[in-house]
Amino acid sequence: MKFQLALATTLLLATEGLSRRTCGNNNPPVELIEQAILFEGMTKLKAGSDQADDDLAARAKYVPLHIHNVYVSQTRDQGYITEQDVQNQFKVLNDNFASTGIVFDLVSVSYTENKTWANAGSGSAAELAMKKSLRRGGYDELNIYIRPLRSGLLGYCTFPQANVAPNSDKFFLDGCDVLFSSVPGGSTVPFNEGKTATHEVGHWFGLFHTFQGGCTGGDFVDDTPAQGSATSGCPAGKDTCRGDQYPGVDPIHNYMDYSDDPCMTEFTTGQTTRIYQMWDQYRAPKW
Ligand SMILES: *[C@@H]1O[C@H](CO)[C@@H](O)[C@H](O)[C@H]1NC(C)=O
Ligand SMILES: [Zn+2]
C-alpha cells in the first residue's frame, strides 16, 4: 500500500511540473537537413528577384486535422481530456499558425481507452498498432495523438519524408504525439497553454529547432538568429552567439525554441516560406 502510494505520487509529479521543454525531434534526418540547405539557397536567390513577393496570404492552406485522445482511464490525471480541451487546443493551433496562412480544419476527434497505447513509447510496437488503428486521412492530413506518453517528453513528431507509400508503416506513423497535460489549462506548468502542439506541428511541417546545431549550425532559415543553446524560461536579451557574424539576440519567442509556453509567440517569415517549400516537396496531395 505504501509503495503504491509512493508510486502514484511519483507519476503525478512526473506530469505536473517540468523544469524544461523536452521534445523528441533533436536530430532531423540527414536528407531533410540537405533539403533545408537547398531551400535556404533558393530563398536567397529569389530574394533578389521579383518572385520575392510570393503572396503567402493568397496561399492560405487548409490542413485537415484529426485529434486522438488515448488515455489510461477516463479521468484527468490518467490522460483523458474533455471535448472542450480538444476545442481549446484546436483554437490555439489555429491562432498560433494564423501568421503563416495555415488553417487547420478539425475533421475528426477520437477517444480510446487503452493503457498500452496511452503509454506507448516512440518506435514501439504498441505505438505502431495504435496508429494503424487510429490514423486518418492522407499524407497531407495531420494526426495528433494526445496521451500520457510516459517518456518524460512533452511531445514528438515525424518530419516529412520522401516516398511514403500509402499504408506503409512510415505512413501510419506519420503524425504528432503530445503530452495530454500540455493542452490549454493542463497540469504541466509552464507548458500548459497548448503550445507544445504548435511546436511539434512545426516539426511535422519540416521546421527544425532554432538552436539546431548551435551557433555554427542552424535551422537553415535566414531570419532566425543563430542560437547556441535551447532556451529555458523566458530570459529577455539571451544572446548565446556573439560577434559580427551572429547578428541579433536568441529567438526566445519563436515556437521552435524550448521556451515556456507564455514566452512563445511567433513563427518568422522565413519559417513560413519553409513550411510551404516543405509542403510542396513532401506533403502536397499526390493521390
Ligand atoms: C489495446 O492495445 C493492445 C496492444 O496494442 C491491443 O492488442 C488491443 O487490441 C487494444 N485494445 C483496444 C480496445 O483497442
Ligand atoms: Zn522540438
UniProtKB/TrEMBL annotation:
UniProt xrefs under InterPro entries: MetalloPept_cat_dom_sf, Peptidase_M43
Residue spans crossing the bilayer: none
Signal peptide from the UniProt entry: 1-19
Xref: SUPFAM superfamilies: Metalloproteases ('zincins'), catalytic domain
Ranges for domain Peptidase M43 pregnancy-associated plasma-A: 192-277
Pfam family, one: Peptidase_M43
Record-linked CDD domains: ZnMc_pappalysin_like (cd04275)
Alphabetical UniProt keywords: Disulfide bond, Hydrolase, Metal-binding, Metalloprotease, Protease, Signal, Zinc
GO molecular function: metal ion binding; metallopeptidase activity
Top-level division of the source organism's lineage: Eukaryota
Record-level GO BP terms: proteolysis
PANTHER family, A to Z: METALLOPROTEASE MEP1 (AFU_ORTHOLOGUE AFUA_1G07730)-RELATED, PTHR47466
Family: Belongs to the peptidase M43B family.
Protein name: Peptidase M43 pregnancy-associated plasma-A domain-containing protein
Biological source species: Orbilia blumenaviensis
